[in-house]
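Let's practice the habit of predicting before peeking. Look at the sequence and jot down your guess about where helices and strands might fall. Then scroll down.
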Amino acid sequence: MAMGATYSTQSGSLSADLIKDWEVQKETMMKISNEMPEDTFNFKATPTQRSWGEQILHVAGANVSLMQILGSTVPAPVINQTSNSKTAILSALSDSFDFGSAVLAEMDDNSLQQIVKGPSFFGDGTRVKFAYRTMMLTENIYGQMVIYLRLNGLVPPASQ
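Done guessing? Here is the structure:
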């Protein structure tokens, strides 16, 4: 998680700790995503990379698709990968994290440890594996977003 995040003592419950980590990640991602001015949401570090807005939408889409692997009765939000306004993009990101929170709220420690079928690039694994893999993907994108901000002369929230 980002520097500056405050962690309380872990609960000893896998599901409670996972939900806490998910919520901290949402807060971190919403802060960094909001830092870039709207007129630079199309900024790319290089021409072949995703734009700032596309990076955020990638996280939102991955949150939804990967958290669906866990199996849930919660309806998934539709993420419009072509959104181009800051408001719509941040809303999609927030919705994706809210979806993940709702999915995780349905899980207990036993269900998180059950094996589910994953995509071919991950293979099968426990639900908790896929939840943390989703967060790992987001952390990778977060690191890229730090560079995008710095290239625009902006200081990431965790460094302010």
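How did you do? The domain at 14-153 is CATH 1.20.120.450 (Four Helix Bundle (Hemerythrin (Met), subunit A)).
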